[in-house]
Specification:
alpha+beta; 49% helix; binds protoporphyrin IX containing FE; 412 residues; five-stranded mixed beta sheet; three-stranded antiparallel beta sheet; Cytochrome p450
Length: 412
Amino acid sequence: MAIDGLDLISSAHYGAAGPPHEQWRELRSQPLTYFEPDGYEPFWAVTRHADIQEISGRPEDFCNGEGIVILTQEQIDERETSDIPMLMKTIIEMDPPDHRMFRKVASGFFTPRGIERLDEIVTESAKTVIDSLGSEGEADFVEKITQQHPLRVLSTILGIEPDQEAKLLELTTQLFGGEDPELQREAENRSDAMLALFMDFFTMFNDIIQDRRANPRDDLATMLATATLENGEPLGDMETLGYYLIIFNAGHDTTRHSLTGAFQAFLNNPGELRRIRDDPSLVKSAVEEVVRYSAPVNYMKRTATRDLIYDGHEIKKGDMFGLFYASANRDAEVFEDPDRFDVGRHPNRHLGFGWAEHYCLGAHLARASIHALIEELAARMEWMELAGTPDYVASSFVVGPKHLPVRYKVSA
Ligand code: HEM
């Protein structure tokens, strides 16, 4: 099959057809394939598990600092005139040694022990969203459950008051809406829309930062608002704001899509939910399988920092690479029967949280959130079935269903 680069990178294609698993299967026959899709930056597609590990482990050769998203020509043109990139850089777009120094600011909070203190919030939130379904009926599970659960958890740790949650949800949905017209903010052009979005985020988070500086508490919001780097410099206002943004934005839609992915997988494989009900110790491996299978972070970009040879190809400084985690997670070299959803899969060395230098900072929190929801689901969902066709967000970056209509019966 002749593979069109647009199938890998066009947000519209993802919106229409979901992730391109067939194309990836074919591309995995070789380490790198070069694409020059119409209207996008040219890039090398990296689709195998081993090559993504290799490239992620060499930040000195393949950096994040030149951006993490493969841009459209329109975005390149807009960037040249926009102020946004100058305002702030978040840790995901940093490289060593700065990256390590800035990552340390929050890494203590996100360790398994640090996350344990959130157990109650996470469990309570999972219970509340399932309670909100009532005893039986029909609902869009994205709207009712999967976007609410991470919103509640992240808002709590970042100090956002409940009456601000809806506004925050609207902002993050617009930020990650890709080219989806249903999700985009109305504005003259995309650049104006993005600037307005950043100003809204700024206002919301800045109020919290100022409050925590005046009234410190034992929470992540205070940790960020009062942080000092290991070189003794306090974190500046823009850097603090950048941290808020990256934690909320990297944490919300990713967790939402993995939870929606879990529902989809259980709807298509009801026997797997029964397995968990019969043996609740399977929840832990089910969480990993959900992240492998749904892979909400579809890809990340890397840029070559120098001329080099990779697998016999001459790579030029500035060449871009799309690391397709969602493809690596179906690599038959690593996973037996990779297209099967198996809640007992072991080992499960998926790359859904990335690898090495930029490995997901919030992975333990994401796991805890998914764990709590699957536990609640296995205990209380008496039956559920699809009540319509799920559709996908038109985005090739953070990927997942936009709506998931379900008929259900839940016990108290
Ligand atoms: C299932 C949910 C999640 C998935 C699939 C996911 C996936 C990822 C991936 C693939 C990366 C690597 C980026 C790269 O290679 O450049 C990453 C980085 C990151 N994630 Fe997550 N993530 C999830 C949830 C979260 C949560 C809940 C938070 C915060 C509360 C979070 C915060 C971050 C941050 C801050 C980074 C940047 C780390 C760095 O650059 O050092 N993520 N995530």
